[in-house]
Write a structure and sequence with these properties.
heterodimer, A: 258 residues, alpha/beta, Rossmann fold, 28% strand, B: 481 residues, eleven-stranded mixed beta sheet, ten-stranded mixed beta sheet, 23 strands, disordered N terminus, ATP hydrolysis activity (chain A), nucleotide-binding (chain A), FeS-cluster_ATPase_SufC (chain A), ATP binding (chain A), ATP-binding (chain A)
């Protein structure tokens, strides 16, 4: 098993936001996590990536047998956790390529791989750019500076392609994309799928899942996974909304005396 | 402890890299300042009478000056009688070859990364080294001589080229300019002199390296650069000092003169000892730098990377006298811990169609206070002159401060002045983003800060840009978790 989350609880500013998440992801799998606004989807992504303002109060997270919660954010990244951000930040004056070179060098050092020569790095850059249809001119610009929403998301996928993580968490990568951009981003991700890596797609909408077909769909509500199923669950949610699940959840909670 | 605090702590305990003292026989004057001190220095340097007279004028002006009070910090008490105004390695004569130099001194320069021995030299950089008060060596002299370029210590210039020195010294920064300039006039010990003849393009970077070593001494160097018509020179200065609990005063004067069609590019990487984390010790850096674009179509540009010193008080300025002359000021000033920087520029547009450009990037961390102070002045004759100012401040943490004091005066209604200012904080979001790609926080901050300062760093000569980048990263190491 690649990722194992056991009874994960986390707070932000004293407020409990994850209330006992259990999830197992194997290599080669794609999991979709859906759920209404405020259910904790993005919080889960942040906790896995190690964002500091979240406090884990209970539970465990293992990545290939290593305790993820013990690691700093950069160590998690080097171990192979990649978060495609919902709102990628802009860093003026830092060239996209220079940044990626630094990141790749750190990751390769950690994985005991030899450093790439400038030539090899450029070759890899070109190949990955083509693979995910990322414009070369964007690669040389300052990191995300002045990029459109769609360009930023595509840059996330380009970085994912370059850094070759084990586990990729895509936090609403589909939001704010027009249909063409969505197609490009999805096809990029599909090309990157392999038996060695895994993807967790956090999304509001079923739309993305038409392009990237998940093996499992989970519904997050009120800080817990309240339902899991296959891709048909996403269709059901699209059709029926989340209200029936909320009712079901509160009904169960009432029965359990919560 | 929060991660931030731990990292800040690590930074605080990090030692200033150049804080060592060289054990070397020194010739140091008694502390104190009076007419005899001035005579003593002048005599030590075998100066002609006119030089002594000028020093005396400086001394008289110094006595009448008051300490400036307009800057954005309280002027520390300075006891000018407690300073020794002359310190020199004992072996005094100008060395004919490196073999004659005290090996201990050579080791110091090696530690500082100064390319003293010719074979180790960065290709194309000629270096003058000022150790405490005297110039130790000027390399590449012969090659420069062939082009008619004079690059030597100012003491040597006083002896060998008195007509040039007499004509230009004090012509841009008069001996009455301000208390520190007057003091410098009275007691300056050494510094560099450059003369580029008409039509000559200096083929290499000229560079001076300043080092304060002795205790209780001040350093008062004087630099004079003259670029004759249609010539070009790029000049760089670097500086370090040992760690000491007492503050030491550095009061330099730099004068630049660009004749018709000439261009001077002056770059500084200032890394004087900044004091410890509680603000104990460190260099008081009170410097007067001014350039005059005397001729039409001349150009002067100042680039400074200010990372050291307990206090930096420095406003490299340009008098744009020639029509169509141009002035540039590019600055990165970093304050960490208890450091204070009050720095900026003055652009005096006197001639018509003059242009100036100011790019200032302040970075504050720890409890550092960083002020930009700038004056843009359009005189009555400055028709169609233009200024563009961009003044950015970056804050790291929430105990530091950034301040901006722009002054604008225009007496010509065809002149244009533009001013842009921004203040931003290094976002946790930015650091986290880079962390998430496998880059640790220190490196992340280095990347962000260097990106922020890029417009200025790009102005530095290549080898020094790399040094400056490293220095910025070092100065700020660990300032955010």
């Amino acid at each position: 098993m690649m990722l194992s989350i056991k009874n994960l609880h986390a707070n932000i500013e004293g407020k409990e936001i994850l209330k006992g998440i259990n999830l197992e992801v194997n290599a080669g799998e794609v999991h979709a996590i859906m759920g209404p606004n405020g259910s904790g989807k993005s919080s889960l992504a942040s906790v896995l990536a190690g964002r500091e303002n979240y406090e884990v109060t209970e539970g465990e997270v293992w990545l290939d047998g290593k305790n993820l919660l013990d690691m700093k954010p950069e160590e998690r990244a080097r171990e192979g956790v990649f978060l495609a951000f919902q709102y990628p930040v802009e860093i003026p004056g830092v060239s996209n390529i220079n940044f990626l070179k630094t990141a790749l060098s750190e990751i390769r050092t950690h994985r005991n791989l030899p450093q790439l020569s400038a030539k090899e790095f450029l070759k890899m850059t070109r190949e990955k750019q083509e693979l995910v249809e990322f414009e070369a001119k964007l690669a040389n610009r300052s990191l995300n500076q002045g990029f459109s929403g769609g360009e930023k998301k595509r840059n996330e996928v380009f970085q994912l392609a370059m850094l070759e993580p084990k586990l990729s968490i895509l936090d609403e990568t589909d939001s704010g994309l027009d249909i063409d951009a969505l197609r490009i981003v999805s096809s990029g991700i599909n090309k990157l799928r392999s038996t060695e890596n895994a993807f967790v797609l956090i999304t509001h909408y079923q739309r993305l899942l038409e392009y990237i077909v998940p093996d499992f769909v989970h519904v997050l509500y009120n800080g817990q996974i309240v339902k899991s199923g296959n891709k048909d669950l996403a269709l059901e949610l699209e059709e029926k909304g989340y209200d029936w699940l909320k009712e079901e959840f509160h009904g169960n909670a009432a029965l359990n005396g919560q | 402890m929060e991660k931030d605090d731990i990292m800040l702590d690590q930074l605080a305990n990090k030692e200033y890299e150049f804080g060592f003292v060289t054990a070397i026989d020194m010739d140091i004057s008694e502390t104190g300042l009076n007419e005899d001190t001035v005579r003593f220095i002048s005599a030590k340097k075998n100066e002609p009478q006119w030089m002594l007279d000028w020093r005396m004028k400086g001394y008289q002006a110094f006595l009448q000056q008051e300490m400036p009070e307009w800057q954005n910090f309280k002027m520390p008490e300075m006891d000018f009688q407690a300073i020794s105004y002359y310190a020199a390695p004992k072996q005094q004569a100008k060395y004919a070859s490196l073999d004659e130099v005290d090996p201990e001194l050579l080791r110091t320069f090696e530690k500082l990364g100064i390319p003293m021995s010719e074979q180790k030299q960065l290709a194309g950089v000629a270096v003058d080294v000022v150790f405490d008060s005297v110039s130790v060596t000027t390399t590449y002299k012969k090659h420069l001589n062939e082009l008619g370029i004079i690059f030597c210590s100012i003491s040597e210039a006083v002896r060998e080229h008195p007509e040039l020195v007499q004509k230009y010294l004090g012509s841009v920064v008069p001996h009455t300019d301000n208390v520190f300039a007057s003091l410098n006039t009275a007691v300056f010990s050494d510094g560099s002199f450059v003369y580029i003849p008409k039509g000559v393009r200096c083929p290499m970077e000229l560079s001076t390296y300043f080092r304060i070593n002795a205790e209780n001494t001040g350093q008062f160097e004087r630099t004079l650069i003259i670029a004759d018509e249609d010539s070009y020179v790029s000049y760089l200065e670097g500086c370090t000092a040992p760690m000491r609990d007492e503050n030491q005063l550095h009061a330099a004067v730099v004068e630049l003169i660009a004749m018709k069609g000439a261009e001077i590019k002056y770059s500084t990487v200032q890394n004087w000892y900044p004091g410890d984390k509680e603000g104990k010790g460190g260099i008081f850096n009170f410097v007067t730098k001014r350039g005059a674009c005397r001729g039409a179509h001349s150009k002067i540009s100042w680039t400074q990377v200010e990372t050291g010193s307990a206090i930096t008080w420095k406003y490299p300025s340009i008098l744009l006298q020639g029509d169509y002359s141009a002035g540039e000021f590019y600055s990165v000033a970093v304050t960490n811990h208890m450091q204070i920087a009050d720095t900026g520029t003055k652009m005096h547009h006197i001639g018509a169609h003059t242009k100036s450009r100011i790019i200032s990037k302040g970075i504050s961390a720890g409890k550092g206070q960083n002020s930009y102070r700038g004056l843009v002045q359009m005189g009555p004759r400055a028709a169609y002159s233009r200024n563009f100012t961009q003044c950015d401040s970056l804050l790291i943490g929430d105990l530091c401060g950034a301040h901006t004091f722009p002054y604008i005066e225009s007496k010509n209604n065809t002149a244009t002045i533009e001013h842009e200012a921004t203040t931003s904080k290094i976002g946790e979001d930015q650091v986290f983003y880079l962390n998430q790609r496998g880059i640790d926080s220190e490196q992340a901050i280095a990347l962000i800060v260097n990106g922020y300062a890029k417009d200025v760093l790009n102005q530095l000569p290549m080898e020094f840009a790399v040094e400056a980048q490293k220095l910025l990263s070092l100065t700020l190491e660990g300032s955010v978790g």
